[in-house]
Amino acid sequence: MMTVKRIALTLALACGVAGGAQAAATITIANTNAAGEGFNDPTPAAPVGGNAGTTLGQQRLIAFQHAANIWGATLTSSVPIRVAASFEALSCTADSAVLGSAGANDVYSDFPGAIKRGTWYPAALAAKLAGVDQTAPAAPHIVARFNSRLGLFADCMPGSGFYLGLDNKAGSQIDLVTVLLHELGHGLGFQTFTSGQTGEPMNGLPSVWDHYLLDNRSNKTWAEMSNTERAASAISGNGLSWAGAGVTAALPAALSPMSMLMVSGPAAGPAAGNYTVGDASFGPPLGMKPVAGQLAQVLDQGAATGLACTPLDAANQAAVRGNIALVDRGVCGFVDKAKVVQAAGAIGMVVADNEPAEVSGLGGSDPGILIPAVRVSQLSGAKLKAALAGRPPGSSGVMASLGVNPAQLAGADGASRIRMYTPTEYSPGSTVSHYTTDARHNQLMEPAINGDLTHEVTAPADLTFSLLKDIGW
């Protein structure tokens, strides 16, 4: 007889029964909020985007059920999946917030039907593979929490609350259904149970993920590595890939060619070369025909930095007109910066990050922006500024070209496998258990929710279900 190992988990990932999704799998939501709170909040709400609820609590629950229906129609399991869910106060400031967190409530190994022995599986997947629930009756397979204060208080991203409609027309708000799909994805198994910070496996056993997490430099999986090797891989920048066959097969149709900034010209010096960039969710996408011009740094009065948050003065206007503007991240939104330099006549925008991190995209939406925009790392920004220092502002001789590399998929490694999120500084709840932010088109399971996501979880639009199939779904 095979033995079954079980371990309870604490909720680790960022980022009464209410009915079920009747499809290839049944997902049942247990509302764990107290009366008057969260899903039971009686605040009146007007129906929006196909959500007919008349209170805030009702609309939250309807949105959750809608997301559960999408996953239920995608998965196959004879065992109903139980989700304990609540809206409550999560970490929040005026400028940033945890939208939600979710994960498996339990993990199991060596159960009947387990594909890999001596390996942890999340509760819902273990039940699917065994054909019999492995957990206690009525105990949840997934625990999920969402931010009840978002956009509703001055200290919690005021004005940027959840959009509760079901039609994916959130505009400047944050689409709740998208957030729900993301967090349910974690609970279904889009996570490793091995510590990315120490590399230590839970109770000495690898997660099913560890058999597919591949260090693309050593060609060793996490299941083959030492704790030290795993911990180094988790903060490698771009050294960790997903080696599952399903995701790799779906990649060419799901991802676009990688965007890049090409810098050249006799004045470029050491700054010449190709730069990894993050794409903007606004403005035209980069294509095979590059947008090219001289690079011109916006300089604020009295400081060697250019935020481009207010209309440019005459000197800066003259510098960026007909050129590609280099601006600094900070103070105002990316859309605001793009509008400012576009109004001054720039043909493109490069945003230099203001903190060390993996390159990510530029969020926001404005149909009036007609120029392309990208983000480069803080280190790359410093390199570009050094090349421009002392050069004539409007005729630097440093040439910039915004285009794509047709030989490289955005977010993939050299062997066309998608990379995982491994910033050089460890980020609790985000590192490893997400796709890279370099992916284009944006993926549901990146560490931040992007405004251009659809409500699809299957390829070619999205690679979430492809990964879940790799681990056994």
Description:
With 473 residues, the chain is α/β, with parallel strands linked by helices. It has three domains: 187 residues, no CATH class; 116 residues, no CATH class; 153 residues, Glucose Oxidase, domain 1. Helices cover 20% and strands 20% of the residues. The strands form five sheets. The chain has an eight-stranded mixed sheet, sandwiched between helices. Strand 3, helix 1 and strand 4 form a beta-alpha-beta unit. Helix 1 packs across helix 3 and helix 5 runs antiparallel to helix 9. The longest helix has 19 residues. The protein starts with a strand and ends with a helix.
Q: Layout of SSEs?
A:
Elements: E1 5-8, E2 17-20, E3 27-31, H1 56-74, E4 81-88, E5 100-104, E6 106-109, E7 121-122, H2 123-130, E8 142-147, E9 162-163, E10 174-175, H3 176-188, E11 213-215, E12 220-221, H4 227-234, E13 240-242, H5 245-254, E14 257-264, E15 273-276, E16 278-279, E17 291-297, H6 314-320, E18 324-328, H7 334-343, E19 348-352, E20 373-376, H8 378-388, E21 399-409, H9 464-470
Helix count from the secondary structure assignment: 9
Report, as a whole number of angstroms, the end-to-end distance.
24 Å
Secondary-structure content class:
alpha/beta
Ranges where pLDDT stays below 50 over 5 or more residues in a row are 1-12, 14-22
State which percent range the strand residues make up: 15-25%
Helical content stands at: 10-25%
H and E string: EEEHEEEEHEEEHEEHEHEEEEHEHEEHEH
Let me know the number of strands.
21
> Major sheet, described briefly?
8 strands, mixed
**What is the domain total for the residues?**
3
Query: Mean pLDDT, nearest integer?
Result: 92
Rounded to an integer in angstroms, the radius of gyration calculated over CA atoms is 23 Å
Shape: globular
